[in-house]
């Protein structure tokens, strides 16, 4: 981790501490502004964004000490003020943009390879890795855009309508990944032997666990929920390649057990994500 990354983390941690000084009204005002600015786009300079948010927070605290609310200090048109601030932000360097792109493609490829390794006869389709990476990047952009626009504008009114819209969007995204998997031609497909497959699965599991356990506390809350489904997919992939278990895993009962395990892993992911978000003070 470079000095700039450390500086950004220190600003965020300081921001989280200082935010506790705000009144409930000012905290709500500021946290809406914070999410709006942080989700303005993927390619703004992180250090500039967090420095700006820290300056705004310090200004609000100073105004609060003078018995002035955040709304009185910044004005009632919060979105207009935020848009003016965002307009002055600098873009990330080409190096930072490349790192973010590689990260999104890396995460997408990791899960695609892991998924492919749970079916020994399927092989790893390189074209699917590329298409899924592009789609994953688009999905991240869409999520940021929706979060950004929904802070000050009610895109969908009503809790039921909002829930159904989110469900439909998630189903559409999952459906697109499934369609890509089903209909992408096998132009460049890598098939692995059982022993090599077990070796690669083991390396992926160790790498994922190492990455998650070596994150700082806040980042670990984000990545920790992914560990159970990763472990379950690795377990299925290995048992499908071990002579003692592969015949049973390929039978009807084995396939049912694999599906149950995957669903259980998904439920664990949701539960851990929920409790992680509740404990997160951002």
Automatic annotation (TrEMBL):
UniProt keyword Coiled coil, yes or no: yes
Coiled-coil positions: 1-32
Xref: Gene3D superfamilies: c-terminal domain of poly(a) binding protein
Organism: Clostridium coskatii
Name of the protein in its database record: DUF1129 domain-containing protein
Superkingdom in the source lineage: Bacteria
Spans traversing the lipid bilayer: 100-120, 126-148, 160-180, 192-215, 222-244, 256-276
UniProt KW keywords: Coiled coil, Membrane, Transmembrane, Transmembrane helix
């Amino acid at each position: 981790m470079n000095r700039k990354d450390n500086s950004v983390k220190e600003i965020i941690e300081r921001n989280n501490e200082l935010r506790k000084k705000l009144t409930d009204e000012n905290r709500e005002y500021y946290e809406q502004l914070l999410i709006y600015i942080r989700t303005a786009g993927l390619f703004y300079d992180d250090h500039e964004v967090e420095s700006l948010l820290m300056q705004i927070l310090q200004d609000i605290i100073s105004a609060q000490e003078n018995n002035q609310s955040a709304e009185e200090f910044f004005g009632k048109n919060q979105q207009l003020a935020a848009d003016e601030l965002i307009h002055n932000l600098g873009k990330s360097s080409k190096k930072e943009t490349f790192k973010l792109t590689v990260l999104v493609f890396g995460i997408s490829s990791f899960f695609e390879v892991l998924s492919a390794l749970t079916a020994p006869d399927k092989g790893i389709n390189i074209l699917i890795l590329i298409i899924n990476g592009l789609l994953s990047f688009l999905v991240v952009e869409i999520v940021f855009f929706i979060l950004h626009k929904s802070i000050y504008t009610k895109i969908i009114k009503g809790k039921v309508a909002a829930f159904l819209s989110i469900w439909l969007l998630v189903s559409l995204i999952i459906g697109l990944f499934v369609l890509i998997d089903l209909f992408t031609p096998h132009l460049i497909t890598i098939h692995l032997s059982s022993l090599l497959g077990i070796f690669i699965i083991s390396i992926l599991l160790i790498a994922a666990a190492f990455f998650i356990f070596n994150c700082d506390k806040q980042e670990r809350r984000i990545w920790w929920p992914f560990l159970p489904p990763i472990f379950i997919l690795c377990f299925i992939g290995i048992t499908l390649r071990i002579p003692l278990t592969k015949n049973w895993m390929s039978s009807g009962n084995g396939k049912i057990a694999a599906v149950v395990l995957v669903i259980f892993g998904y439920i664990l992911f949701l539960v851990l994500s929920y409790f992680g978000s509740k404990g997160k003070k951002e």
